[in-house]
Amino acid sequence: MKLSTTTRAAALSTGLAATLALAACGAANETSGGSGAAGSAGAGAEQLSGDLVGAGASSQQAAMQAWQAGFNSQQPGVSFSYDPVGSGGGREQFIAGGTDFAGSDAALDDEELAAAQERCGGGEVFELANYVSGIAVVYNLEGVDELNLAPATVAGIFAGQITTWNDPAIAADNPGVTLPDLAVTPVHRADDSGTTTNFTDYLSQAAPEVWTSEPDGEWPLPGGEAANGTSGVISAVQAGNGAIGYADESQAGALGVAKIGVGSEFVAPSPEAAAAVVANSERVAGRGEYDFAVEVNRTTTSADEYPIVLVSYHIGCVEYDDQAKADAVKAFMGYVVSEEGQTAAADAAGSSPITADAREQAQTAIDAITVAS
Amino acid sequence: MSTQTSPAPAPVTERPGPVQSHRRLPRFAATGLYLAGLVLGALLSALTGFNLALTVVYGAVLGTLAVWLTSRAVEGRRKGTDRLVTCIVTTAFVIAMVPLASLVYTVLDNGLRRFDAAFFNSSMLGVVGEGGGAYHAIFGTLIITLLTTVISVPIGLLAAIYLVEYGTGRLKRAITFLVDVMTGIPSIVAGLFAFALFALFFGPGVRLGVMGAIALSVLMIPVIVRSSEEVLKLVPNELREASYALGVPKWRTIVKVVIPTAIAGLGTGVTLAVARVIGETAPLLVTVGIINGTNLNPFEGRMATLPVFAFYQLTQPGYPPELAIERAWTAALVLIMLVMALNVVARLISRFFAPKTGR
Amino acid sequence: MTLTSAPPTPPRPKRRVGDRIFAGSASGSGILILLVLAGVAIFLIGEAWPAITAAAADLPGGQTLTAYIGPLVFGTLIAAVIALLVATPLAVAIALYITYYAPRRLATAMGYVIDLLAAIPSVVYGFWGIAALAPALVPLYGWLAENLGFIPLFAGPASATGRTMLTIGLVLAVMILPIISAISREVFSQAPALHREAALALGATRWEMIRMAVLPYGKSGVIGGAMLGLGRALGETMAVAIVLSGSGGITFNLISSSNPSTIAANIALQFPESTGLAVNTLIASGLALFAITMAVNMLARWIVNRRADFSGAN
To answer: Which domains does chain C have, with CATH numbers?
Structure first.
């Protein structure tokens, strides 16, 4: 050990640098450079290039990951990115012109719509409800495998008015079921989320006399158990006997899923029923031809529909300044609404594939996407 | 645990005095009594329905009582109190070790499941369900940490040199005090600061790797100043005086004499500071965000980092969730291993680079 | 700190260019640190200003800024205080055990292990809290609510998941334990050997020696360490965000599932989906946190430095 300090320091840093260099050989699942691997793409489709930037709702992230994978295999020349900045941030950035499209758990409001039209050079804006996911009311109650809940009962539980499982209101919904004398622990999201917005929107519309708060992404009431993210809600419900929460239907796993009162019947969440309620809901009136923002029919009475759904939109311009941009948006949206795209999202995120009618409707908007003349 | 029986260096010779009794408990009696108390506690809790937490509480209380009362009866009040405190201190120490051991065990148990090659050589780009890894996050963490070090070390070191070699009067006192205070800045506040700084120029949607590096620098600079200051102070003044006597200018004395003498301590301090910031999550959450693919350019767009990756994999898993949660635990394990490795490096630096002088 | 005298002044006559540059950049760096600290305050105030001046109706939840931040400040303080109450005695015990009870070799190893634990990332503590600690505490909370329910702190109903204020207090206690014990260990081991030996020579038992010679000497060091731990606990983000069921409201009930959240955790949870004024509001709450931790840290440093001055006089 007669080396000088400097020599030893030099040797150490060389060693470190070498380790870094060795490790930096690229991720195995990523190709280096988008256009390099164009060979395998479908021969029929026209090969596009350029980049396509989206930002918005993090609820779409898992689906977006699948869409990105599928779209990249079709159009390897397009460098695609989606920034999960949150719905509000997505709309803001789209309006500011920073991104090519937005993902959002809520449609544009009137003010935003005007601003978005301006951003699109005075042209129209499209809003497509491309991501639909049922929100299940999940519960953990030993010995109770099936549970029916009327809208007012759900609202009463989450508003903290119904505090035990053998409450008359719950018993009235479940004749013949022995309900334990156990405290109800309602679990809600601790973070700001589109799931909460849609769930509180449902409560305020379906049970306005019980649920008096406005729909909000942040849980409006104090009290109850709060958990971080869908997975947090699921694990909190799993952990506590007597717990009940709301989460994406696909994440329910082994937990009990309540049937929700729709009209005179009780309906369990299913992809079909969730897609159906969106397809049969009214479009928001007074908007552009390609603006398919819907007012989800939370008070539906059809037993084929499940009213607690999360609807997430893709928002973009009908006319883009740039041919490449218009083509890229068109190709991407085309892939997303296609059967293949919707199945990919269902597999990855557990979303509900949109109905054939909805697809046809969306396709009219996608066909209209063009370059500004 | 057997140490509690080793007698304190007490007077050996017989002499009259306030110590009433010279009787002593046999060497292993205290340990034995304590264990007996533990067993009794376990039996007691077994009677009332077994519960691990209660068993430990009963056992510890009974064991301590047994030792205290016996010692008090045999050896007198003062000795009894001494034994009591020994029991309490040892028990507290063991109790404190329990959660720490549990922590390491839980992370190892959950983290080893996905500790495979794929975790290290693939990112999350296009990964749906199974597979996927933290390649992008590991490199994001390394790059941002490197950038943080590049920003922090010169500033921190120069500031320490100022405090030790140049600083006088009020400014020195103010800097010393505020550096101390700065070590306590909550990490999320540092993140918000970097966010506010960049949001002012680039708008509120901005997320860059370099923002994270600046946030972490706010946390790292004071740590480096503190440790470097301590080390530079240890350099004997004789060395400086000898250098000045040879007509060497002050700055060359610092560069050629003071810093080389202190290099081991400086290296250790920097490495420990790196270990301190490499696991920071909150500031990166608000400044760097997360991305699925590999982005090695800290000046453009979001980057993935290991702690944020772990957080999001745990809280926003895809479908099915188990796979993402396993990735989260493995990321936590890798993070701990990085921190441990840095600590070991720090030890090695201080051992191998230490000047072979003095004792 | 004051043990070394000021470095000797270098030869005066000519000030070389190299010297000037070097001295300039060194003092520049020192001043830069002051600027950074000022910058943190200024930028936070700048970004928080829109929320401070905004009308209550525009803020998230439609309530005033104080009504929004108030429960968060309360949650932050109560979690940190629990952590401090639990961690300080344990940390002192650890420090005493390592310095005066454990065999020498074991003590060195233990000191090293504890230092390592101080470096474990907080997100990992969060993982551990949610996976291991919270479920393990559920039976205890049930028992507390049943048997000690008359104390308002344990009024219940007990949380079914264990993600309560008491749990997060314990997680934070485990996190700050290494910090407090490291500082306590240092001051205990510096207790003057003469005093200790004198105590033993007079026939004191080990505990009497510690009580008479070590604790008085180390007291302010322990207090300073505890304040530093408090500062850390106040600002802890990820562990709280992951573990705590923060559903708002002010309550002293530590074992139910309704707890106030903490400032830092609330920022981490709401920030990613926030835009516009909501971001400004979060930054305003961050500013409040900054002010609280600055106050705590200044107090801690003042106490520690006072001890340093005192011992320097020896």
So the answer is: 61-310 (1.10.3720.10)
Half-sphere exposure for C225 (CA within 13 Å, toward CB): 26
Tens digit of pLDDT for each residue in C224-280?
788 888 888 988 888 898 888 887 778 888 888 788 889 999 888 888 777 778 888
- HSE at residue A369, side-chain half, CA atoms within 13 A, is 28
* Homologous superfamily assigned to A134-271: Periplasmic binding protein-like II (3.40.190.10)
Residues B147 and B279 in one domain: yes
Report the 10 Å Cβ neighbour count for A254. 8
Provide the 8-state DSSP code for A223.
Answer: -
Please tell me the predicted confidence (pLDDT) of residue B211.
92
Tell me the CATH number at B246.
1.10.3720.10
Q: What is the pLDDT of residues B199-219, one digit of tens each?
A: 888 876 678 889 999 999 999
Same domain, residue pair B212 and B75: no
**B76: containing domain:** 29-113
Sites in chain A below the pLDDT cut of 50: 1-2, 22, 32-44
Contact yes or no for B316 and A229 at CB 8 A: yes
Q: Flag if B121 and A28 touch (Cβ within 8 Å).
A: yes
- Tokens 């700055």 — which residue? B251
Tell me the residues of chain A between 27 and 46 that have a Cβ less than 8 Å away from chain B.
Answer: 27-30
Residue B18: inside a domain, yes or no? no
Q: Mean pLDDT, to the nearest integer, of B266-287?
A: 88
Indicate whether B98 and B210 sit together in one domain.
no
Taking all residues of chain B, what is their mean pLDDT, rounded to a whole number?
82
Residue A27: its chain B contacts at CB < 8 A? 121-123, 125, 133, 135-136, 294
Query: Whole-angstrom Cα distance, residue C213 to residue C192?
Result: 8
Whether residues B106 and B215 fall in one domain: no
Tally of domains within chain B: 2
User: What's the pLDDT tens digit per position in C195-229?
Assistant: 889 998 998 888 889 988 888 888 878 887 888 88
Residue written as tokens 């009582």? B65
Establish if B177 belongs to a structural domain: yes
Q: Where are the domains of chain A?
A: 14-132+273-296+310-371, 134-271
Q: Does B305 touch chain C (CB under 8 A)?
A: no
ipTM of the complex: 0.82
Which of the other chains make 3 or more beta carbon contacts under 8 angstroms with chain A? B, C
B228 and B159 share a domain? yes
Residues of chain C with pLDDT under 50: 1-3, 310-314
Residues A155, B34: Cα–Cα separation, whole Å: 56
**B358 domain-assigned:** no
B106 lies in the same domain as B237: no
Domain boundary among B113, B148, B174: B113
From the number of C-beta atoms within 10 Å of its C-beta (0-12, 13-18, 19+), residue B258 rates as buried
Pick from A24, A72, A349: CB nearest B318 = A349
CA A129 to CA A108: how far, in whole Å?
A: 12
Task: Show the DSSP H helices in chain B as ranges.
Answer: 29-47, 52-75, 77-111, 117-121, 135-161, 169-182, 187-202, 209-234, 237-245, 250-253, 259-278, 282-287, 306-315, 321-352
Residue C242, chain A, CB below 8 Å: the answer is yes
In a domain, B6, yes or no: no
Q: Who among B103, B185, B285 is closest to C268 (CB)?
A: B285
Q: What is the pTM assigned to this prediction?
A: 0.83
Q: Which residue has 């070991």 as its token pair? A: B344
CATH number of A14-132+273-296+310-371: 3.40.190.10
Distance, in Å, from the CA atom of A68 to the CA atom of B152, rounded to the nearest integer, reads: 38
What pLDDT digit, counting tens, does each position of A10-58 carry? 555 555 555 555 455 567 777 544 333 333 444 445 778 878 888 888 8
Q: Given B118, B139, B352, which is nearest A8 (Cβ)?
A: B352
N residues, chain A: 373
